[in-house]
Hints:
The protein has 274 residues and is an alpha+beta fold. Helices cover 38% and strands 18% of the residues. It has nine helices and nine strands. It has a nine-stranded mixed β-sheet with strand order 2-5-4-3-1-6-9-8-7, sandwiched between helices. Strand 7 (183-186), helix 7 (194-206) and strand 8 form a beta-alpha-beta unit. Helix 1 runs parallel beside helix 8 (225-247) and helix 3 (120-134) packs parallel to helix 7. The protein is globular. The protein starts with 9 loop residues before the first helix and ends in a 7-residue tail after the last helix. Zinc ion binds next to loops.
Amino acid sequence: MTIPAPFPDLNELLTLIGEAGRRMSEIDATEGGAGNISVYIGWEMEPRRVFPNTEPFDLPEAAPELAGDSFLVTGSGRRLREVIQDPAANLGFVRVSEDGARATLFTSPRRLFARLTTEFNSHLAVHLDQVRQTGTNFHAVIHAQPPYLTYLSHVPRYQDETYLNTHLLRWQPEMIVNLPEGLGFVPFLIPGSPALMAATVLALRTHRVALWAKHGVMARSDLSVKRASDRVEYAEAGARYEYMNLVNGEIGEGLAPEEIRAICAEFGVAQSIY
Ligand SMILES: [Zn+2]
């Protein structure tokens, strides 16, 4: 999937990232400085009217496929709910050098952070993998900590990917349509570690949302940052219904597998969960 021209401009992307951050905050998925957002931009974009200050930036890994391409990335410790108030102050713009080995960080004079998010290594690995796999020219990644999903990831039976997906996606007809691959489950790994990065890349190669056990989620979209935040919302809604059902003695039925298969047949959804 690639976005066709005319491409969204820098200010549109900044506003959309702010709106996605606000939405993640509205569903209680961003306590304190938790959560982060990055967007890969595979077309020429001039950052200096918004981000006039420059400094060298060490890429976590060389990325020759991304030579000359750019990212918008939230600053470390910034609150996702506040990005919308002044996106330029809360985000950095990273442009990869023409050889793909180095990068430049462009920032605003109102910059409110010392470093970019410490999760940028995971974000970059996911962006890079998607560009390599699909050749996309746009890719958004959101990390958030939605409470119902995160709570269920502490319960052993939901740590099985088949059990997790068959139980979470049964509560609304839209869920299988929006998450036809379900959620990828990633066992607990230290935040920011190379092991978490590698497991996340694999989970997001075949899913649009990865559930990090005992931590939160990472969601992606090659269409828009709002689409990625929608996916977090759908997954969290499924987890919320599931939690409600648990505390209510599991008296809810959920959609039956044959009902979900009928929805998929009607809407042409290819899925292998039910
Ligand atoms: Zn986190």
